[in-house]
Design goal:
homodimer; alpha/beta; Alpha-Beta Plaits; Rossmann fold; Pantoate--beta-alanine Ligase, Chain: A,domain 2; 3 domains; 6-stranded parallel β-sheet; 13 helices; 17 strands; 32% helix
Chain lengths: 453, 453
C-alpha cells in the first residue's frame, strides 16, 4: 500500500502529476493564471496541460461565493513533498490565510491528486487524493484533460483490515518512518461499545493514523472463564471502527498471534498482585504478553486504555515503563450507561433482572465518594459504606472490594494519610449463572461519578 | 538536539539560509549564475547576497580541476527538504550525474549549510552542515558575506553520549519519525573488541543512524559470577564507537535502566533451555529482559548480534518474533584471533598459559568440522572427536559440549538426519581460578572455521 516516500525523487524523466486548482476570492482566473505561470518557472516543473475553469458550488464550509475550478497536468522531477511545499507557498503568495476557517473562501487552492502511479500515505500528503472521486468539481475539469474516472487509481480503503502481524508492523513502521505520522493504538477484544468508541475518537483527535486491534486473547482467560462465549461481532466492530475514522483494524487469528513455537511470556510484579490478579491467576501475564506484542508490532506514539480496568491500566503503565515501550500510555475515563453502569462488553451476558441489579457497583462507588466528601478517611468505613450497598442486592456476589492508592494500586494504611494521596475504590461483583463478573472503580473525591444517578 | 523537521514550513516571514556553491566542470561561473537566477525565480526563495567566487583545490576524490566556490545567503519560506529538492534539480539541470564517482568533478554543487537557527538531523539532510567548519572553501566565501566561524552553529558532537533512557527513546523516535532514518542497534556490555567493531561497521553500512549500547547488565549475572570484575573501559569503548562512526552511545547507570519499582521480567521458553540456560539459571531471563527494554527504547530497523553467543542469538530471535519487536535481528559471524580463539571481552581474564590453551575450543570445533566433512553423522562420534581435544588440555574444564539443530538449537536424534539440517556444535570450557568461561560454536560443514590454523 505504501509504495513511495513523499520525499523521494521520481525516476529519471520525472512523473506526470494531476493537480486540482480552485479559487473563490479576489480574481480567481487571474490568481490561477499567475500561480500556474510561477509553477512553470520552478526548476523541475513543466505545465503540460490545463483545463478551462468551471464554476462550481462550494462544498461544506460557510456561505460563500461560487468557486472557479480547474485541473492541471504537470510533469515534474521534484519529490511530491517539494511540489506540495511550492503549492502552499503559491497559496500563501495569493493571500491565503492558513489560520482561517475550515472549508472557507480562499484566493487559491492547489491540491495534488496523483503523483505518477505512486501511492503515498504520509502525514502531510495522501495520493491518490482520498476524496478525489467524490468531487464533481475535480472530475469535470479532469475530463477536459481526457482523464476519466477509470484512469484514476482508487484511494485506499479505510479502515484497512489486517490479519497478519508482519503486515501490521510494516504498515505502522512505514507510516512513522516514511510518512512522519503519529500513530495511535487502541487495543481491544472487540464487542466494541461507546467506551471503546471514546478511545478511538480521542486517538483520532491526537494522532495522524489510528490502529484498532480486535483480538480475544486466550492467554488472559483462565480455565472455566468465558473465552468461548465472549462476544465476537466482527462486522459491527468494523462498522464502528469505520464510523470513528480508524485507519487500520488488526484482527488476527489466534494462530498468527501465537504461532507454533511461541514461548515467551512477560510478567509484571507488584501492580499485578491482588484484586484481579488474585481472582484470576495468570490473567495479567496473558494481558502483559499480548499487549507487549501488540504494542511492539504497532510501535504507537500513543496507546489508549479505558480506566474501567484500572488494575490492567496500572499493570500496563508499569509494563510500558519497564520495557521502554514506544510513546505514551493514555488513560481514558469510564463511559457509563445513564443509570451509572460502566460500559463493558460483558454486560450483554446479563439477564434483565441482573442488568437492573448491576447498578449497585455504581451506587456503591457513589456512596463511598459521598462519604469521602464528608471527610471519612478510615479505609474500613469507606469499604463499609460501599459494601452495605452491594450486600443489599441478593443478585450480586462480591468478589472483592478494596481501597488502594490510585497511582499504583499500593495497599493503604488503615487511615488514608492527609498527604494528597488519591484513593481508588475498586470492586468486582458476580451476577447470574454461569456468572458474569462486572468491574468498576473510581478515584474518590474527584467528581468522577458526577452526572450519574 | 533534533529541533526541526525537514518538511516543516518555517515561521511566517521565512528563514535565512546559507548555501555553499561550487563547480569544476564546464563553465563554473556561468553555471553558478544560471542556478542562482533559477533559484531566485522559485516561489518562496529570495537571493539576498552572494560572495565572489574563490578558486580552491579539490578535497578528496580523483585528480580533477580546481573548483570555483562561493557562498550564498537566501531567505526562504520553503521547508528545508523542498529547498534541498530544488538544489538537486538545479544540479541535475547543470548536467550533474548522480551515479558518478564520489567526490568527483561536477558542473554544480549546492549544499545547505544552515537553515535559520534550526537543527535538522534527518536521513537526507543534516544542518548545520556537519563538516562546514572544516572546509576553507566554505569558510572563505562565507567571510565575504560577513559570516564568521563564531556566527556558525557547531555541528552536533558524534557520537552523542546518552545516559537517560527517555533521551535514547526520544532521539531514536525523532530520527525515524521526523528524519525518516533507518536506525541500527548494537547492544553490548562494553569492553569492545574487533567482534563488536564488526557489528558497528555493518550497522554503519546498512543504516542511517547507529546506536551502540554499553551496559553491563546485572540481571544476567548469577551469584558468584563475574559482574564486579567485568571490564568497563568506557573511554576506550567510546573512542572505538567514534572511530567506527556510531551516532549515539547509550551508557546508562544501573539505576536508570532499573529504577525503583521496576518489576517486569521477560522469559523465553525452549531456546533458553539447556546449554548456557542450564549452567546459568536466570541468565536468559536477564538477557531477554534487558534486550526487550533496549530494543523497545531504540526501536531499531536492525539490531546486530554476534554469533559467538549462539544460544543468546537463538533466544533473542525467539524474543524478537514472539514480542513482535521492531525491525530485524541480524546475526554476524564470529571474529577470531589469528590462532582461532573467538574474540570475547572475557579473554582479558586469561593468564598467558590459559590464553595459549584456550585455542582448544577452536581446535575442537575444527576437528568436528573435518569429521563432518568426512561424512560422520553420528552425534556421539562428532562429540567424541571434539571432546578428545578438550580432554587433552588439562588447563581446560569442559562445562558442556553439544550438537544441536543450528536453527533453533533443538536436540538432535542420535544420527543427524540426511534432510539438509544444519548442525551446530557448541561448547563451554573453563580456565583458571576464579574461572573464566569461554564459549565457542560453529555450524559444521559450512566453512565457518576456514582461515583458522
Amino acid at each position: 500500500m505504501i509504495e513511495a516516500q513523499p520525499d523521494a525523487f521520481p525516476r529519471r524523466g520525472g512523473v506526470e502529476v494531476l493537480v486540482a486548482v480552485g479559487a473563490n476570492l479576489g480574481d480567481p482566473a487571474a490568481q490561477i493564471d499567475r500561480a500556474l505561470a510561477a509553477l512553470g518557472a520552478v526548476p523541475g516543473v513543466e505545465v503540460l496541460a490545463r483545463s478551462p475553469l468551471h464554476t462550481t458550488r462550494p462544498v461544506g464550509g460557510p456561505s460563500q461565493a461560487d468557486f472557479r475550478n480547474g485541473a492541471v497536468k504537470l510533469r515534474t522531477t521534484l519529490p511530491a513533498l517539494a511540489l506540495l511545499a511550492v503549492f502552499k507557498e503559491l497559496e500563501r503568495q495569493a493571500g491565503r490565510d492558513f489560520d482561517g476557517v475550515r472549508d472557507g473562501p480562499r484566493p487559491l487552492d492547489l491540491d495534488l491528486l496523483t503523483y505518477g502511479d505512486q501511492r503515498i500515505d504520509a502525514r502531510l500528503l495522501s495520493v491518490p487524493h482520498p476524496r478525489m472521486l467524490d468531487r464533481d468539481f475535480v472530475l469535470a475539469p479532469l475530463a477536459d484533460l481526457g482523464v476519466t474516472e477509470a484512469d484514476l487509481p482508487p484511494a485506499a480503503e479505510r479502515p484497512r483490515v489486517v490479519a497478519d502481524p508482519e503486515e501490521l508492523r510494516a504498515t505502522c513502521r512505514a507510516w512513522v518512518q516514511r510518512g512522519g505520522c503519529r500513530v495511535g493504538l487502541v487495543p481491544t477484544m472487540g464487542a466494541l461499545h461507546d467506551g471503546h468508541a471514546s478511545l478511538i475518537r480521542r486517538a483520532r483527535e491526537e494522532c495522524d493514523r489510528v490502529v484498532v486491534t480486535v483480538f480475544v486473547n486466550p492467554l488472559q482467560f483462565g480455565a472455566g472463564e468465558d473465552l468461548e462465549r465472549y462476544p465476537r461481532p466482527f462486522e459491527a466492530d468494523l462498522a464502528r471502527c469505520r464510523a470513528e475514522g480508524a485507519d487500520l483494524v488488526f484482527a488476527p487469528p489466534v494462530e498468527s498471534m501465537y504461532p507454533t513455537g511461541f514461548c515467551s511470556t512477560v510478567d509484571v510484579g507488584g501492580e499485578a498482585e491482588g484484586l484481579e490478579g488474585g481472582e484470576r491467576p495468570g490473567h495479567f501475564r496473558g494481558v502483559a504478553t499480548v499487549v507487549a506484542r501488540l504494542w511492539s508490532l504497532c510501535g504507537p506514539d500513543r496507546a489508549y486504555f479505558g480506566q474501567k480496568d484500572a488494575q490492567q491500566v496500572a499493570v500496563l503503565r508499569r509494563l510500558h515503563a519497564d520495557l521502554g515501550l514506544s510513546g505514551e500510555l493514555v488513560e481514558c475515563a469510564i463511559v457509563r450507561e445513564p443509570d451509572g453502569l460502566a460500559l463493558s462488553s460483558r454486560n450483554v451476558y446479563l439477564s434483565a433482572e441482573d442488568r437492573a441489579a448491576a447498578v449497585i457497583l455504581f451506587h456503591a462507588l457513589a456512596a463511598a465518594d459521598r462519604a469521602w466528601q464528608r471527610g471519612v478517611r478510615r479505609v474500613a468505613d469507606l469499604l463499609g459504606v460501599a459494601g452495605r450497598i452491594v450486600a443489599g442486592e441478593p443478585r450480586g456476589r462480591l468478589d472483592y472490594l478494596e481501597c488502594r492508592r490510585a497511582e499504583d494500586l499500593a495497599v493503604l494504611p488503615d487511615v488514608v494519610p492527609d498527604d494528597g494521596s488519591a484513593v481508588r475504590l475498586l470492586l468486582a461483583v458476580r451476577f447470574g449463572e454461569p456468572s458474569t463478573r462486572l468491574l468498576d472503580n473510581a478515584v474518590l473525591g474527584r467528581g468522577e461519578l458526577e452526572g450519574g444517578v
